[in-house]
Design goal:
alpha/beta, Glutamine--fructose-6-phosphate aminotransferase [isomerizing], five-stranded parallel β-sheet, glutamine amidotransferase, transferase, binds 5-amino-5-deoxy-1-O-phosphono-D-mannitol, aminotransferase, globular
């Protein structure tokens, strides 16, 4: 049941400290600086020469997150929409690893892409929440995110767990491939172990409800981010439109000036996500929107230069770039939730949508 919460979505947002702790349990060891993904044999990824992620919706945003972390670790990788894969898959050979990211393990588009990859000789892996799902049965390997059942149609805790597991898996793939652990693993692991506590702090002190109240009668909502903040911007906008029925779009910060800026007015709040990757550029992009009258809500740590420049602030604990976006995403989940609640939307079951999309 929903327990003390009015909606499953809010319950599931608040479960994230626990679901993340479950995801990483026994899988990281900061004392020995190792990723103990015992799901896989030692050096199992040493022959992988490129990685293709396939996924849809929120899982695609997690896949993009994972793909960017792999690129940053020096591994060639791309994230593709599963429903585009059959007409536009990049070349595959038997050293290509295709990773299907799917919470349910039953999404038709994603299963079709997985089967195509398999037929063309790729090695396949799925990152999923459901043991015994079709994706888990059909892929060569499965990595379970252990988020527990998610009832709300809007994916929340599963996104965080997917992104964290993909970050870990990426470090493991890069390590196997390069013959030594990636340089930033040492700082990542203790930060990862601190995530549940940081999420507890964020959830206990979020200003999301008052921000939702302040801006809930705007015309459109924009989300911008750079680097790992980009998939979070896309996800922030998807969640917002899905449950509030209001228009929302996510952009790479640097793209704003290449077109979307034409839409910016005092009626279009801009949520700017700062993950510590060229933040000064993102701040400049946000200020360009502000100059056109848009209220800017900075999602960043206290004391960050964006706090002063922005109209509002959603605080995230300090951490490293690989994880900051996940904290920002939780603030955005809360904004969407409270905005939808104010508008009296059926939060757990938005119109026209299904939890698991089993048709192409
Ligand atoms: O079960 P999957 O992760 O494969 O589902 C893919 C999408 O349908 C899903 O992520 C959808 O976008 C979310 N429920 C939106 O919140």
């Amino acid at each position: 049941g929903k327990g003390e919460y009015d909606h499953f979505m809010l319950k599931e947002i608040n479960e994230q400290p626990t679901s993340l702790a479950q995801a990483i349990e026994g899988r990281v060891d900061s004392a020995t600086e190792r990723i103990a993904l015992s799901d896989f044999e030692p050096d199992t990824f040493e022959d992988v020469d490129s990685v293709q992620f396939v996924a849809c919706g929120t899982s695609y945003h997690a896949a993009l997150y994972g793909s960017l972390t792999l690129n940053q670790a020096g591994v060639q990788s791309t994230a593709l929409l599963a429903n585009e894969y059959s007409v536009s898959a990049p070349p595959i050979d038997d050293d290509t690893l295709v990773i299907a990211v799917t919470q349910s393990g039953e999404t038709a588009d994603t299963l079709t892409a997985l089967r195509r990859a398999d037929a063309e000789g790729a090695r396949t892996l799925t990152v999923t929440n459901v043991v015994g799902s079709t994706a888990a049965r059909e892929a060569d390997d499965a990595l379970f995110i252990r988020a527990g059942p998610e009832i709300g149609v809007a994916a929340t805790k599963t996104f965080s767990s997917q992104a964290v597991m993909l970050t870990l898996l990426g470090q493991r793939i890069a390590g196997d491939l390069q013959g030594e652990p990636p340089a930033d693993l040492k700082s990542l692991l203790p930060e990862l172990e601190s995530m549940p506590g940081r999420l507890d702090d964020l959830l206990a002190s979020s200003a999301a409800e008052s921000i939702a109240e302040q801006y809930s009668d705007s015309q459109s909502y924009f989300f911008i981010g750079r680097g790992l903040g980009f998939p979070v911007a896309l996800e922030g906008a998807l969640k917002f439109k899905e449950i509030t029925y209001e228009h929302a779009e996510g952009f790479a910060s640097g793209e704003l000036k290449h077109g979307p800026l034409a839409l910016v007015t005092p009626e279009t709040p801009v949520f700017a996500i700062f993950t510590g990757q060229e933040d000064e550029k993102t701040l400049k992009n946000a200020e360009e929107a502000q100059t056109r009258g848009a209220p800017v809500i900075a999602v960043c740590p206290d004391g960050h230069p964006a706090v002063k420049a922005a109209d509002e602030h959603l605080s995230i604990p300090e951490t490293e770039p690989n994880l900051a976006g996940l904290l920002a995403n939780v603030q955005l989940q809360l904004v969407s939730y409270y905005a939808a609640d104010l508008l009296d939307r059926p939060i757990d079951k938005p119109r026209n949508l299904a939890k698991s999309v089993t048709v192409e």
